[in-house]
Amino acid sequence: MVTPARVVIGLCLSAPFVAMLWVGSYARTDPAFIGIPFFYWYQMLWVLVSTALTVVAYKLWQRDQRARAAARGGARR
């Protein structure tokens, strides 16, 4: 069953893959950040962003599962 929460979960989990596979968007040296070329700091930034998106996806999944369990429990009574 596709729900809005599951769509958001899918987007959260697929965004890092799309960002890293689209190499043309970050295959350059400028702008540098504290002397680090863009190519490197962009990838390191995505490590943090990916972590945050995975946490969001996990929390949404937990909420979705609790709602489904509550709906099943309410239907049985």
Automatic annotation (TrEMBL):
Q: Which residues cross the membrane?
A: 7-27, 39-58
Q: Which superkingdom?
A: Bacteria
Pfam families associated with the record:
DUF3311 (PF11755)
Arranged from A to Z, the UniProt key words for this protein are:
Membrane, Transmembrane, Transmembrane helix
Query: What is the protein name given in its UniProt record?
Result: Uncharacterized protein
